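During data preparation, a discrete fold description was generated, as reproduced here:
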Amino acid sequence: MADLRLERDFPVSPETLFAWISDGPRLLQWWGPEGMHVPEHDLDFSRTGPWFSVMENGEGQRFKVSGQVTHVKPPVSVGFTWAWHDENDKRGDESHVTFTVEATDSGARLVLDHRDLGDDEIGRSHEKGWTSSLRKLVAALG
């Protein structure tokens, strides 16, 4: 099983960063790789329970992912399950994501852990997607 860990530092307080990784309207500003928009969603990581998002690229291709928010510990961490849906809306293999916020001397650090991704190719694909999404978060908070 491939696991992914990414870290980014931000010039904001841990509380502000936590809001950007848990609050639905803020999440929508950076959720999904560059070039994607989110026309359908139930993105709210401020509470436990189900979530989903449909990301759409410029060619109209749609990609649905869903899961359960498993824990919310403000302003430290949010955890949620993650599974892509196929063209028949059937969920695939489930993995788990944790966003952890740490205080730094200059603000806050986001640690993104995505576990149980399957093989290395799936891990590389998720690394590319999360890296792109995090660039959007950096731009929003920079």
Summary: The first strand starts at residue 4 and ends at 10. The chain has one domain: 4-141. The first helix runs from residue 14 to 22. Residues 87 and 114 are 23 Å apart (CA to CA).
